[in-house]
Amino acid sequence: MQNSRFLRACRREPVDATPVWLMRQAGRYMSEYRELRTRYSILELIKSPELACEVTMQPIHAFDLDAAIIFADILPPLEGMGLELEFLKGEGPIIHNPVRTAKQIGLLKVPEPRKALSFTLEAIRLVRKELEPRGIPLIGFSGAPFTLASYAVEGGASKNRIEVKKLMWNEPVAWHVLMNKLATLAGEYLLAQAEAGAQALQLFDSWVGELSPADYKQFVLPYSRKALQIASKAGVPLIHFGTGTSGMLPLIHEAGGDVIGVDWRTDLATAWDQLGEGVAVQGNLDPVALFADWDALEPRVKAILESVKGRPGHIFNLGHGILPETPVETVRKLVDFVHEYTQTRA
Ligand code: CP3
After folding, report:
1. Section 220-230 average pLDDT
2. From residue 65, how far is each of 61, 62, 156, 345 by CA, in Å?
3. Which of 132, 186, 239, 297 has the most CB atoms less than 10 A away?
4. What's the pLDDT tens digit per position in 257-266?
């Protein structure tokens, strides 16, 4: 297992072909997933270890992927803090009681993930049994403190993130308390997932690109670093992912991670030059490119692979999660193409 392409690439060791997995690889673009969703809500799928295991395995059965990611979401950990989470049809997640004052933040609990998130830890144990004979490693994950804070403070999706930024600037002491709690929870949750069997861990900071580099450095970096430091006790590779990070890649790296996830708004080779040779990189195809005809898509995939050719430590992925309407046949072709193209050129 430690010799799998994916784990070797995380450690920047040479590989026989470039490993590939896709963020949100289990989800609505697959008919198998949609079928289960007619019977269960997303939270029911996540909270039943058997169902979460089944959904995690759906893309593994369908495609030649080099890693699985546990089926869960970044938001259930907030429930253990005292926040009321609901996924509304067509609208995404909402938090019914967002926190906006020092008093509300003071009341938030830091749950023990081994208790509050035992369903995901149990799902990890089940998935590992399925993946072991296939030699495919499992990725665990957590939302990063800033992205979690965005949901906890805004109460849901938000265009300009006015509430979370107001809190950060106007109430730095309360912000510190909130981010410390989220960093401890994220770090301990990642660590618990590795103890349960996850062989790599990804920190998702999806909304961090909304910040200026200076604000990132002052208000966010110390907490992402704290979460990753706690997780690093597990001794497994850490992937640090954000979108819109082209102006702050060295800071993202400074916060930690053995692998840095890069979106398509940054040229991958340029990003890697900025980060230096000491890290692996993951990315970075535009998820919308999967809607293009293969003749238009192939040169874009090739360009990414060519741009980092010869540098050990590239994990092919999208620059953000796969979209719900993505054609399944294109996904299959993409995964096979990455392997074939990088294998034959060696
Ligand atoms: O990657 C995987 O296959 C593992 C599963 C996974 C989900 N969410 C399942 C999910 C992962 C890694 C996530 C991460 C996540 N969740 C992030 C960070 C990554 C990113 O994409 O930016 C964020 C911001 C969330 C929060 C979230 N969950 C939103 C905004 C939504 C609604 C929007 C949407 O895509 O529907 C979700 C719901 C969600 N999480 C779905 C899935 C498969 C769709 C739910 C459904 O079946 O209706």
Report:
1. 98
2. 9, 9, 32, 20
3. 186
4. 999 999 999 9
State whether residue 26 is helix, strand or coil. coil
User: In the chain, what is the straight-line distance between the N-terminal and C-terminal CA atoms, in Å?
Assistant: 22
The yes-or-no verdict on residue 345 having pLDDT over 60 is: no
CA-CA distance, 31 to 330, in Å (whole number)? 14
Name the residue ranges covered by the structural domains of the chain: 5-345
* pLDDT at residue 196 greater than cutoff 50: yes
Residues with CB under 6 A from ligand 1: 23-28, 37, 42, 69, 71-75, 87, 92-93, 141, 204, 206, 320-321
Q: Say how far apart CA 220 and CA 74 lie, in whole Å.
A: 17
294-325: pLDDT as tens digits: 999 999 999 999 999 989 999 999 999 999 99
Name the phi and psi angles at 203, rounded to 5. Answer: -100, 120
Cβ neighbour number for residue 33 with a 10 Å cutoff: 18
Identify the residue whose C-alpha is closest to ligand 1 atom 34. 92
Evaluate whether 242 touches 208 at the Cβ level (below 8 Å). yes
Burial class (CB in 10 A: 0-12, 13-18, 19+), 310: exposed
Query: What's the residue count for the chain?
Result: 346
CA of 145 to the centre of ligand 1 (A): 16
**Cβ pair 119, 47 in contact under 8 A:** yes
CATH number of 5-345: 3.20.20.210
Q: Which atom of ligand 1 is nearest to the CA of 37?
A: 47
pTM (two decimals): 0.97
